[in-house]
Amino acid sequence: MAGRPDAKPYYAVIFTSEQTADTAGYEAMAERMVELAAQQPGFLGIESARSGLGITVSYWRDVASIAAWRQHVEHLAAQRLGRERWYQRFRLRIARVEQDWSFERPTS
Amino acid sequence: MAGRPDAKPYYAVIFTSEQTADTAGYEAMAERMVELAAQQPGFLGIESARSGLGITVSYWRDVASIAAWRQHVEHLAAQRLGRERWYQRFRLRIARVEQDWSFERPTS
Q1: B3 found inside a domain
Q2: pTM as predicted
Q3: Which domain holds residue B56?
């Protein structure tokens, strides 16, 4: 959650998911996908949290970067495993970030 | 995480946060804000997860709905307490949702 504002507009991919009981292999794959995403052109950052519902938001320079990442061969394999094993349901949204601001507590 | 697609475009408010050690009162306030947000015009839904980093994404019909909610008197008080007590840092993004799709595991 870097405080640096990125040049706008940029894009957010909002991925919300509920997992199945079969989580074998999930964590390793999720870590690999973060590592791989970070190497893609146009990648700006990624943030994740899970407490029952999982939310991952990744940030990209433009929709072309997102489209390329969605078609990455290793990512396609992960997506297939997600649908076959790990996800009960998910929802994916692509959104254009128009405003962005941050707060940081002053050090006292 | 309803599967129903909302009419596009609509808007997402992506709020990512790290908490301070002082979490007294936080949960009750967070619950109250979800309850209150759901009563506002233009509200479409809200999703939250926290594991260290917290991510809350709320969905709105348009930017006017978001602006009105940000100025709601009870919400303003919560925002002030957030900055004074509960948040080490946060980042707020307003994004226009342009694509939206979902997957639901077939019942076997």
Answers
A1: no
A2: 0.93
A3: 11-97
Q: What is the pLDDT of residues A18-61, one digit of tens each?
A: 999 999 999 999 999 999 999 999 999 999 999 999 999 999 99
CATH assignment at residue B29: 3.30.70.100
- The answer as to whether A78 is a domain residue is yes
* B99, B11 contact by CB (below 8 A): no
Interface touch B52/A49, C-beta < 8 Å: yes
Predicted local confidence at residue B8, as pLDDT = 80
CB-based contact, A100 to chain B, within 8 Å:
yes
For residue A67, is it within any domain? yes
User: Which parts of B5-76 are beta strand (E)?
Assistant: 10-19, 43-51, 53-60
Number of structural domains found in chain B:
1
- Asked if the C-beta of A99 comes within 8 angstroms of chain B's C-beta atoms, the answer is yes
Q: Nearest residue of A to residue B20 by CA position? A: A105
Of B12, B51, B89, which is closest to A50 when you measure between CB atoms?
A: B51
Residue type, A61: R
- On the question of a cis peptide bond just before residue B41, with omega within 30 degrees of 0, the verdict is no
ipTM, two decimals: 0.92
Domain annotation covers residue A14:
no
